[in-house]
Each structure stands twice: as C-alpha cells, then as structure tokens.
Amino acid sequence: MAKKINRYTFSDISTSSSYIVKNFVIANSNDTISDISLDHPFSFNGVVLIICRKGSDRIRINYKEYTVDESTIITILPNQVVERFDYSKDLFVDFLAFSFEFISDFVLPKDFNIPQRIANQPVLKISEEDLTNLLKYRSFIIETFNNKRYKYFEQTLKGQLFSLMTVIASLYAELGSESKAKASSRNEEIVEQFLLLLKEHHKTERTATFYADKMCLTSKYLSTTLKKVTGRSINSWIEDASVLSAKILLKSTNLTVLQISEEMNYPSSSYFGRFFKKSTGMTPVEYRES
User: Fold this and answer.
1) Cα separation of 229 and 158, whole Å?
2) Which of 43, 64, 54, 138 is nearest to 88 (CA)?
3) C-alpha angle 185/189/194, rounded to 5°?
4) Which helix (H) or strand (E) holds 166?
5) pLDDT (mean) for 89-116
6) 3 state DSSP class of 9
7) Which keywords annotate this record (predicted)?
C-alpha cells in the first residue's frame, strides 16, 4: 500500500537540493524531492512560494481552481489543501518553503495585511519585469547558500527572505488598490461567504439548500450567483469539496471505507463508494492503494 502521507511537515522533506536548512528550503523543477507525492491532495505546515517560469499547470487551493502559467506566482499558506492536475510537460518552477518559526523575528509594517490578501488570491500573474526582479532576489539567496562560511549565515538568509517577501507583499498591495471595487462587489462577497461555509461544513452537508439557508438566500439565487462569478454550479463546488476530503481521509488515515462514509454523513458505505467512483473513476480502495 502506498505511504499515507498527505499532511506534510519540514521533517518529511528529503531533497537533492543543496539549498536547505532547518525550516527553510529552496529548489526548482530539476531537484528531486523524495517521500512527498504531489499526485494527491496535500497540505503543508509552512509557507510555500512557487514561481512559474515556463509551462502551465492547473491547481486547486482550498477547493478553488486556478490556472498557472509563465510569470505567475503561487503563495500557499500553512495547512491549505492543495491539489494539482493537468500540468504541461515543459512546466518549470522555482519554489521555496519556510516556517513561521523561521521568520518569527521579522518586524512587519503596522498595515501589513497581506496574508488575508494572499488567502483570497493565492495565484498572482505578474509582469516580466517583476518576474526578473523576484528571480534576482532568489539568486541572492542561492549565493548566500554557496557561501555558508559567513559568520552570520542564517541571519543573512533570513534578511534576504524578508526582502523577497516584502517585494511580494508590495505586489499584493498594488493588487489590492487596483481591485478594491471588484472585491467589494456583492456577488464576490456571496462567493467568498459560500466558500467559507463550504470549508466548514462540506464533510457533512451536501445540499444547496443548507448553504442558501445559512446565507439567508434562496437556493436559486445562490446557485445563479456562483455560476455567474465562478462558471461552476453549486453542486459542482459541493461535490469537489466532498471528494477532496474523502481523498485526504483515504490517504492520510487508517479509517475504513465504512468509517469514512459515516464521518462524512453518507447514507451507507456502498452509496459513498458509488459516488466516489463516479467522481474519480476509482473505488475508494483503489484510490487508497494507488
């Protein structure tokens, strides 16, 4: 049976990259990362920054789907659920990961509200000029790793990471000022509220009526709004969230299929099995062993 790891920590990382210290790693598509599979939904207990330099990818972060291509940055916050699929053969990315502990001594600006903006829009398209600038900061970090003889190596590393993240924060700050009107629209607010409720209740509640009632809306109005803003039906959102949680339970726990079906409030294990196979093309047992 495949190793049941879906909730990763820094202790799980074993990589061919030479650029790794405690609670911090920097690598790219050429580096081999052992013991971690990205072929199934996963979460990580640190911050992950990915810079796409070539190719394309499609990912879901906390049930929301995004398209990634050249000159795109992805910022994944701790414990967000990520699923990637349908990526091109020429995909090439740089990435770095760090824990909050690693940056605990950073002094942030008083108006620093970037984590919330990142949570709302983790995938950000940037200009070629901004991409080149970010890669320069990355090269500074690589150069520091290549000169570990520095007495204050870790402090230098942290300073350069802080500079890089400050630049990214500035890009998000610019985004916030440009899209303020859009973000405050009623339809966008409805979508965000629905996604928060879905995250909280999707394991046991799978009807449009439940979410509409929670939001004091009619099912028809909520369904129409979701379709208009996201291009997807409410049933599609609910089904994907349920399947994603089932995948995580199958890969990261020893619960039986019956126990998972009960935890997720399905009428029976056979009903759950039919639903799962219809959505994924595999039975729960086949998925667990894949």
Assistant:
1) 40
2) 54
3) 150
4) helix 153-178
5) 77
6) coil
7) DNA-binding, Transcription, Transcription regulation
Domain of 228? Answer: 186-289
* Count of structural domains within the chain: 2
Q: What is the pLDDT of residue 1?
A: 38
Q: Are residues 214 and 272 in the same domain?
A: yes
Residue 1, in any domain of the structure? no
Give the pair of three-digit tokens for residue 71: 């000159």
- CA dist., res. 13 & res. 33, Å (int): 7
Question: Based on the domain organization, do 90 and 42 belong to the same domain?
Answer: yes
pLDDT in tens, 190-213: 888 898 888 888 888 889 999 999
The angle at the Cα of 53, spanning 138 to 97, to the nearest 5 degrees, equals 45
CA distance 266 to 162: 46
Q: What is the per-residue pLDDT for 25? A: 86
**Banded model confidence at residue 233, pLDDT cuts 50, 70, 90:** confident
**116 versus 242: which is more confidently predicted?**
242
Cα–Cα distance for residue pair 276/17, rounded to 1 Å: 37
Q: What is the pTM of this model?
A: 0.68
CA distances from 191 to 77, 120, 157, 215, 245 (A): 20, 11, 39, 11, 20
Examine residue 2 and state whether it is found in any structural domain, yes or no. Answer: no
Residue 146's contacts (CB-CB under 8 Å, 6 or more residues apart) are none
Average pLDDT, the chain: 83
* Same domain, yes or no: 150 and 19: yes
Q: How far apart are CA 285 and CA 257, in angstroms?
A: 8
User: Which CATH number is 149's domain given?
Assistant: 2.60.120.280
Angstrom distance (rounded) from CA 194 to CA 196: 5
